[in-house]
Design goal:
Elements (H helix, E strand, L loop, with lengths): L6 H9 L29 H4 L6 H6 L1 E5 L13 H4 L6 H9 L22 H10 L4 E7 L25 H11 L3 E6 L4 H4 L25 H4 L19 H18 L3 E4 L7 H17 L7 E4 L2 H5 L4 E5 L11 E6 L14 H13 L2 E6 L10 H17 L13 E2 L25 E6 L2 E6 L6 E4 L15 E4 L8 E4 L2 E5 L10 E6 L5
Parallel strand pairs: 1-2, 1-8, 2-3, 3-4, 4-5, 5-6, 6-7, 7-8
Antiparallel strand pairs: 9-10, 10-11, 11-16, 12-15, 13-16, 14-15
Amino acid sequence: MSTKITRRTACKLIAGTLPALKLGAAQHEPSPGIEIERGPFVGTRAALSNYEIPEWFRDAKFGIWAHWGPQSAVEDGDWYARNIYMQGSEQNLYHCETYGHPSKFGYKDTIPLWKAEQFDPAYLIGLYKKAGAKYFMSMGVHHDNFDMWNSTYQSWNAANMGPKKDIVGMWAHAARDAGLRFAVSEHLWVSYKWFSVSHGHDATGPYAGVPYDGADPEYKSLYGDSDQIWSNSLDWSETGIPLWWKRHWYMRIKDLVDRYQPDLLYTDGPLPFEDYGLNLIARLYNLSAKKSGGKTEAVYTCKRMEDAEQGVAVLDVERGVVNDIWPRPWQTDTCIGQWHYKRGQEYKTPKTVIDMLVDIVSRNGNLMLNFPLPARGTLDLEELSVLAEITKWMSVNSEAIHASRPWKIYGEGPAPTAAASGAAFNEEKRKDLTAADVRFTTKGDTLYAVVMGWPEYQTVIRPLATDTSLRVGKIQNVELLGFDGKLDWSQDNSGLRVMMPAQKPCDYAIAFKVTGAIAG
């Protein structure tokens, strides 16, 4: 096939900012520079529609993420690398007051402040495993264009500067040593637009018209080389992103996949750049099949519904919960605070986290929960407290979570469901669940009815009545996880009635193990 190289791309190749274009495998080559690992898949939607989500992901239910990188250096929250170039924003004002104007002291100058001097991935992974996490995700590269591994195509990386450590590699080693599946996130595709604000300047004030440091050609390998500045409203589409960046994205993330062969690759947004994205997924899946005796064990998540519906990927819903049981497994990604560490941040309570976990699992989903690390690389005391409460709850109730499957309905109760199918960013509209709310999971012939609070006297689980359309069987036994005694219970046409014991087995939600209810 012929490959058309634009004048702009040719200039970049001559300048050495991109590796030379090279044709990939002959089996499918729709775009220049794509290299395919031979295996069950080629990079087409038709081929990838045959992808089956592996059982380990369906069983895992709970993962923990370290959304951590050089933007954590200043410990001032999300999108620091972009917002310091947004005149008048809180982070811009803080940056100017603390470090100076971004025309003189920009994002590049904050990177040496990120030292990770107390980073101990094995210790952290041990805490996460005790809390019930079955997979762990490292940041790979955020929108700031800084790679968290010893990158082939980006000199701005954690092995070269900042902590001078291969952060992704260290996380991968620790996670796999502990028996956890390893995941990695990429947010790079939109960096071409996201970081374009660094090429601008103040509109008013003493520095009006003075270019920010991102406009200096010396630093274009960090700040990018976009022709347009997307400032007031960031366009999350591919419109305006040139071919050379798409190909560069592919080579960077291919390098990440080839080096670490993650069990899960997460993209922050839709599947990027069609042919490039599809071929990257095919490569991920084929590498996994090669390592796993011919069966693909890898997972790719993205945030566009169409990709998940076609079988190409697993749907990830950022900070949200879907409105019902979904036929295909899916994932919520959320955080106990902000994505990047912020000093003084108020975190989600343990109850809020546990409510979300149970609710998500009852709807055939997984929860990926971020604990943002401070610059030093250790959890703060409040984060440790939240994690300890999750650990205590899981030590009693994990049987109702791990390797479970949804029932006929996800649950019942007065709490409102998600606002819309697959709605992202709806978690703030949710209220804490109460003892009037129940969520269901199953494991084989066992039904778990998780009551989302402690009833004062008795609980009545109405969907387990003898005469409902759910075709509930005659219940043989009811146990309360964490309670060793016998329960006083009965089943009639009003539901399953259980008298509560004198002492709670755990805080937050309680799980009843019900035998005989699953009748077909």
